[in-house]
């Protein structure tokens, strides 16, 4: 499998490119509108054709590249069924793997950061979106987020994956690239096994975060698959 | 490939188990004498037969499990040719891959921490021993270590691997499990690209580290493949 972790520095967002070495088909997960040209260049560099774009959730911090990529490549866009968007070509649902050549992408429904959040398991890797970050997790104070749901999603779904599973987050604000399920169990200061549910709820209730800068622009645009907001 | 990162907590040492899913042959890299029973249990759990043990270098902080594993399993022990040991079954050399079923392990000669240090490239992973650690590197003040050599080994060999290559270190003292070549280029405070050779030499010359606790026991034992020091 061709695997590339691509970075957008304004919002510290990771976009993931997965490509099948035989069929040369590819999928982009969480592409950013402002980085579509870069993404297309990387696809070309590897001789890949974009088959799908997948979203982990409706993002509040950046506008998605989905619609622009669809217009420019003819790819199909998959968005979680809970996202409430009409613009996708298909719905992402747990239990319905997405296949790209020989690559099998298994969606896990992991609400908490938002009520539509999914993670994607690909072999010994899991792309965790904003559900589980390295030493952290996404905030839970908008878009029907729920700290209780996030705790259950991480503990009952992500933490049941093998410990050596590689964790590729949707963001990192400190230039870290990758972790493992075992590492997050051991040292995630919010969700590590030394904390219980009450500890986690207290941490999340006291984060005192500012109102998200781009949410009023990004969420409506992303409900339209990023339409009208390409770079 | 079956891949397990195993931890020994007294010296924060990672031992790596790689197993071929077809042939059920396995290799252990940098096993610790005190953890041989654990290692044999993990092999059994996965239904694997130990074919080889490989060392990244002659360790100064722990006694190797090589000889005990050889006595208990009949595996063959490979040690870098520069290590000056007579007890190995074969010498590890850059340019001479070690094959375990369909797994191809490519040694890279990366002197610096010690004059026999090697890293092992396995597909999209590199096991870096004490040459490159997450946000750090091994010390260079004993066993013919050389900060200049370490700088060249990291910059001219490890940093030429693809950025998404997973870095699995020989130790981590903060419970981190994995990094990438890209991450180390970006944020390793010693060897990251924002430092030049002179910066690195200055950092290494001023570490002011204590004399290694177990070096007087470990190095002579490891020159005998850990003989006489099993747990």
Automatic annotation (TrEMBL), chains A, B:
<feature type="domain" description="Metallo-beta-lactamase">
    <location>
        <begin position="12"/>
        <end position="171"/>
    </location>
</feature>
<protein>
    <submittedName>
        <fullName>MBL fold metallo-hydrolase</fullName>
    </submittedName>
</protein>
<dbReference type="InterPro" id="IPR051682">
    <property type="entry name" value="Mito_Persulfide_Diox"/>
</dbReference>
<dbReference type="InterPro" id="IPR001279">
    <property type="entry name" value="Metallo-B-lactamas"/>
</dbReference>
<dbReference type="InterPro" id="IPR044528">
    <property type="entry name" value="POD-like_MBL-fold"/>
</dbReference>
<dbReference type="Pfam" id="PF00753">
    <property type="entry name" value="Lactamase_B"/>
</dbReference>
<dbReference type="InterPro" id="IPR036866">
    <property type="entry name" value="RibonucZ/Hydroxyglut_hydro"/>
</dbReference>
<keyword id="KW-0479">Metal-binding</keyword>
């Amino acid at each position: 499998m061709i695997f590339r972790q691509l970075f957008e520095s304004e919002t510290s967002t990771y976009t993931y490119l997965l490509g099948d070495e035989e069929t040369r088909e590819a999928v982009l997960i969480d592409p950013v509108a402002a980085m579509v040209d870069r993404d297309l260049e990387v696809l070309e560099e590897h001789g890949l054709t974009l088959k799908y774009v997948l979203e982990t959730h409706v993002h509040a911090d950046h506008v998605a590249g989905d619609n622009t990529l669809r217009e420019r490549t003819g790819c199909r866009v998959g968005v979680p069924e809970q996202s409430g968007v009409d613009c996708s070509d298909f719905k992402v649902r747990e239990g319905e793997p997405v296949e790209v050549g020989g690559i099998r992408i298994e969606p896990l429904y992991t609400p908490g950061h938002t009520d539509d959040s999914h993670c994607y398991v690909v072999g010994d890797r899991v792309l965790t979106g904003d559900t589980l970050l390295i030493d952290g997790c996404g905030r839970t104070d908008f878009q029907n987020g729920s700290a209780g749901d996030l705790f259950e999603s991480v503990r009952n779904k992500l933490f049941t994956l093998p410990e050596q599973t590689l964790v590729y987050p949707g963001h990192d604000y400190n230039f870290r690239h990758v972790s493992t399920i075992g590492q997050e169990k051991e040292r995630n200061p919010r969700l590590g096994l030394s904390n219980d549910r009450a500890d986690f709820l207290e941490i999340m209730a006291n984060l005192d975060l500012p109102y998200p800068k781009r949410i009023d622009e990004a969420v409506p645009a992303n409900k339209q698959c990023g339409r009208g907001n390409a770079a």
